[in-house]
Specification:
Blueprint lengths: L3 H4 L5 H22 L9 H20 L4 H24 L1 H7 L4 E5 L2 E2 L1 H7 L3 H10 L8 E6 L5 E5 L18
Antiparallel strand pairs: 1-2, 1-3, 3-4
Helix pairs in contact: 2-3, 2-4, 3-4, 4-5
Length: 175
């Protein structure tokens, strides 16, 4: 085994260390300025921004391409765009409709909604997996299963006693 493979480019170590520290500190500062929602996954847009931020961090730190300064500027732009879109979403329901996906009901009161499953492109095995994750033992326990705007699946269930779900919890969900 050639040790020189592991020892080459050691001269870059201080640069990598400093660059990683700078990017890490910028992420902390940007998050403090723009808020923790910068890393939320409440909407599909939030998820895309989070992935993009992670990608910029990884590329900047691991490859140096983009440079630290360019990476810092890109991160600032992503945080600012996220903040601006979130602001616009709060001010206008039209912007919210354009940016956000609509959650869709996959199950209601123990019944699988096959048309919605097809529309959402969710397979029965995927649904079964999510029901098992939620510790559902009987389909009758399931009050609702919602494919959220982020792609997450929410399973609302009881442990035996049938109860109605408050309308507020399913407001805006396509049934």
């Amino acid at each position: 085994m050639k040790l020189d493979h592991f020892l080459k480019n050691l001269s870059y170590l201080p640069e990598v260390f400093i660059g990683t520290l700078v990017v890490f500190l910028l992420v902390v500062v940007y998050t403090r300025i723009f808020g923790l929602k910068s890393f939320s996954k409440m909407t599909g847009f939030d998820f895309v921004i989070t992935v993009a931020i992670g990608n910029i961090i990884g590329m900047t730190v691991n490859t140096g391409n983009p440079s630290i300064l360019t990476g810092a500027a890109l991160l600032l732009m992503l945080y600012a765009v996220n903040y601006f879109i979130t602001y616009l979403r709060h001010k206008s329901s039209n912007v919210e409709k354009v940016v956000d996906n609509t959650p869709i009901l996959l199950m209601r009161k123990g019944e699988i909604l096959t048309d919605n499953m097809k529309r959402a492109r969710v397979t029965e095995s995927e649904l079964q997996s999510k029901l098992r994750e939620a510790n559902v033992l009987q389909l009758e326990q399931v009050m609702a299963v919602v494919l959220e705007t982020t792609g997450d699946v929410s399973v609302l269930h009881t442990d035996g006693e049938q109860v109605d779900i408050e309308d507020y919890l399913l407001q805006g969900v396509k049934s």
